Amino acid sequence: MKGKILLLFFVMIMFTSCQKNSQSITLNSETNSTMNSELEITEGQLEPSNNEVLSMSIGNYDLKGEFYDEMLRNPIDHDYEVDFNEFQNSKKIITTLEWGALESKYIEIWDKELNQIYKKLLSKLDREPRESLIESQKDWLQYHLRETKFVEKTFITNGYLGSKGSVSLSTVIRERIRERTMQLFEYRYLLDGEVEFVYQSEK
Q: Which residues form the signal peptide (predicted)?
């Protein structure tokens, strides 16, 4: 049974690689596909779609989908996509160092945004909800740090994931912080209908 599943997985990968490049895929799968191809980016290899930038898990409580629509226009994802496309369309081989620098840049941007929305949200809450959010954020931060430490010690420092390992981890860290930031944005949106990013697009 396990062998059949592996064979099916292999066939699916082969089929996907043969499809035309015009098929829309998410930034997450683009990044992972890039990492898995030895980081050699060729012109026209991938085509990001603005409509598929966000995971559908964003906007869990806004049943009308208005928050999701707001998040589609967020400036951080916009600039990341521009930078990603510059790498993708580059005629040179992109090194792991350059990919790592790109991911680190957006980790820092999302982290700053997370801190800002967290403070803003705290200022809008009464005492009991505020205390609950503080505890929730502490738990999330502990999970985030412990998960990162586990992957570093188990798969990165021993070279298990090869030269791409540290970049893959950075991509996961960026996505984890991004997702938590958007959760907090949604909480604020539910309170006052506001979506306000501190970061301003540079592109």
A: 1-22
Q: What secondary structure letter does DSSP report for 48?
A: B
CA torsion 32-143-108-176 (nearest 10°) is: 40
> How many CB atoms sit inside 10 A of residue 32's CB?
15
Of the candidates 104, 110, 85, the one whose C-alpha atom is nearest the C-alpha of residue 34 is 85
Asked if 41 contacts 88 with a C-beta cutoff of 8 angstroms, the reply is yes
Mind listing the pLDDT tens digit for each residue in 11-56? 333 333 333 333 332 333 333 333 333 333 333 333 344 435 577 7
Ranges of each domain in the chain = 26-192
Of 2, 6, 203, 9, nearest to 106 (Cα)? 203
